[in-house]
TrEMBL record:
The active site is at S142, H184, E211. InterPro entries: Class_I_gatase-like (IPR029062), Peptidase_S51 (IPR005320), Peptidase_S51_cyanophycinase (IPR011811). The keyword Protease applies. Keywords: Carboxypeptidase, Hydrolase, Protease, Serine protease. This is Cyanophycinase. GO terms for biological process: proteolysis. It catalyses: [L-4-(L-arginin-2-N-yl)aspartate](n) + H2O = [L-4-(L-arginin-2-N-yl)aspartate](n-1) + L-4-(L-arginin-2-N-yl)aspartate. Gene3D superfamilies: 3.40.50.880. Exopeptidase that catalyzes the hydrolytic cleavage of multi-L-arginyl-poly-L-aspartic acid (cyanophycin; a water-insoluble reserve polymer) into aspartate-arginine dipeptides. CDD domains: GAT1_cyanophycinase. The keyword Protease applies. Its EC number is 3.4.15.6. It comes from Ornithinimicrobium ciconiae. GO terms for molecular function: carboxypeptidase activity; peptidyl-dipeptidase activity; serine-type peptidase activity.
Length: 306
């Protein structure tokens, strides 16, 4: 991975930690809410100023209402909506101002290509980057997680056996360089597509995240796992592969890749690609699964109306 610069400094000269919360999707919203509680704590707890960006979702209004309710139950009162529908709208001053004032930014699930088309490379993107570097926590779930890296998976074949040239990368927000992020990892059997992309770009680490699970990353280096599932790190820097010559859709040869399976309590150094600490899983973490982000949002929205 590319060496990471030292933490930013605030105007007062104090060091500022940059924090990402990369969520694998379908996080618990109604029971113990472990992952989303962590986001609220990182954003400032009761004093948090949270911006929700549901642009990826086909149910953007419902998605905002769901997270507004979840964060409100954590005693957060300052929750704003930023939802540009065009690249031109992503330059509106009120949206930029909301992000500039935020202590926490949350990108919902949906279609990551929408985020690439409507936000990446816009003033909203620039405002998110500024917020991240001044110390606001930036979180994304599912599609909102994928877009946090420099290169995001925009399409790809699921399964266990990797095949050549069946997955595609697009530009992301670039907050986590040197990494390709994938979500719903174990639930949707996405090992094949992540390994195929890492085999073709072995200078990058692959990070796959289960549902109701998050990778908390500080200063692009230190990763801690939170939630009911696991985070998987695929390191192919010393592997041998025929990715440069295999024909399209052919089985891909990869030998010597290292895979780390990291449950709750694991601490991992992304720069060194090494486990640094591990404590046993928190006994109160509840297992949550959901087939799709749309159903997850719809079900949560329906529950709010009961």
């Amino acid at each position: 991975m590319t060496p990471v610069s030292d933490p930013s400094e605030s105007p007062s000269g104090d060091q500022v930690n940059r924090t990402l919360l990369v969520i694998g999707g379908a996080e618990d919203k109604r029971r113990r809410v472990v992952v989303l509680k962590r986001f609220v704590r990182l954003a400032g707890a009761r004093d948090a100023k949270i911006v929700v960006i549901p642009t990826a979702s086909s149910l953007a209004e419902e998605a905002f209402e769901v997270y507004q309710s979840v964060f409100g139950r954590q005693h957060v009162s300052d929750i704003s909506l930023v939802n540009p529908q065009t690249r031109l709208a992503a330059a509106e001053p009120d949206l930029i101002e909301a992000i500039d004032n935020a202590t926490g930014i949350f990108l919902t699930g949906g279609n990551q290509l929408k985020l690439g088309q409507l936000i990446v490379g816009t003033p909203v993107h620039e405002a998110i980057t500024r917020a991240y570097h001044r110390g606001a926590v930036v979180a994304g779930t599912s599609a909102g997680a994928s877009v946090l890296s420099q290169f995001m998976i925009s399409m790809g074949e699921e399964g266990v056996a990797p095949r050549q040239r069946v997955s595609q990368l697009s530009a992301g927000l670039g907050l986590l360089p040197g990494v390709i992020l994938d979500q719903h990892f174990g639930q949707r059997t996405r090992y094949a597509r992540l390994l195929s992309l890492i085999a073709a770009s072995p200078s990058l680490l692959g990070v796959g995240i289960d549902e109701d699970t998050a990778a908390e990353v500080v200063n692009e280096r230190t990763m801690t796992v939170v939630g009911s599932g696991a985070v998987y790190v695929v390191d192919a820097r010393a592997a041998v592969s025929d990715a440069h010559e295999a024909r399209r859709d052919a089985p891909l040869m990869v030998s010597g890749a290292v895979v780390h399976s990291l449950p709750y309590g694991s601490c991992f150094n992304l720069e060194a690609a090494q486990l640094t600490d591990f404590t046993e899983m928190h006994p109160e973490v509840a297992v949550v699964t959901s087939p799709t982000d749309v159903h997850d949002t719809a079900n949560a929205a329906a529950a709010l109306r009961r």
